[in-house]
Amino acid sequence: MQRLQFFLSESGWDAEAVNARRLALLLQDPATRSHAQGILVLDDTGDPKKGHHTPHVGRQYLGSVGKVDNGIVAVSSLWADERVYYPLHVVPFTPGRWFPKGDQDPAYRSKPRLAVQLVEAALQAGVCFRAVVADCGYGDGTALEEALWTADLPYVLALRPSKGSWAPIDQPHTPEDAARAVPWRGPAQPGGWTPIERTFRGWAHRDVVGGRPEPRRLWPAAR
Prior knowledge:
Elements: H1 2-9, H2 15-28, E1 39-48, E2 58-62, E3 67-80, E4 85-93, H3 111-124, E5 131-134, H4 136-139, H5 143-150, E6 155-157, H6 175-180, E7 194-200, E8 203-210, E9 221-222
Parallel strand pairs: 1-5, 5-6
Antiparallel strand pairs: 1-3, 2-3, 3-4, 7-8, 8-9
Helix pairs in contact: 3-5
């Protein structure tokens, strides 16, 4: 335990170099090597922190406690398939209060823009994936979507019901519009909906999903 504590707090190790070596080993091993059917998951997590002097600390939503509180938030990337998953990269989010002009400062980077950096880092590391996946914290804005669209990378981004999406003028523009456009005749006859089963910590929940996706956008609507 003392050796581990010394390694983390006292020795002069380079975090990026250690992480690069870790990923190289994972990508070389046939049991953990990435492949084109896996996905790249983007998300963030926050932990409470007392005081205001530690870099990156601010009052913001913290996923670990499920509320807005004083703490540190980090944006991370993760590779996963149906068999295995492991973290790739992580970068701290710095709230606007740390910049002279707040979130309008040229040096400020929102979480979606940090996510773009993580996608680029995954590609540079040689990670293969079928699509980029993220929740509505990254899907509601345009920074990540524009970057993925420009790079021609497939993605599945969650949206709030009221959020519009890129689509031809004669097609549904929100998840709610897309959901209502699909025939629904009840649970026994779901019509254009497809039953799926999701498992949460040992219990199953059955949903139906449907919609007319764009080439790079899936609408995960559910009833």
